Amino acid sequence: MKHEKPEMPDYEPISVEKLKALYHADERLTAPYQLYRLNSKGGHIYFKEGENGSYTLFLGITTVGALLPKAKPLLYWIADKGVDEAELYMNQKGTYGSFFHTLIADYFIFGELNLTELPDRVRAYLFEHQIPLTLAEKWCVEMQSDILAFIQWVLDYEVEPLVVEMPLCSESLGVGTLIDFVGWMNKYNYQTEPRIAVATFTKKVRKPIPEFGIEVGESCWRWKTVTGEMCSKTEPTQEELTQKRERVLAIVDFKSGKKGSFPSYRIQLQACKDIFQENFPDFPEIEKFYNLSPKDFTGSQPTYTLTDQTDKLNPNKYVAYIEIAKEEKKEIITRPMRVISGTIKKGDTPSDFILDKTIQELIEENHWQKFVQEEKKEPPKLNMAEFTNGLQKTESV
Question: Is the pTM above the cut of 0.85?
Answer without folding.
Answer: no
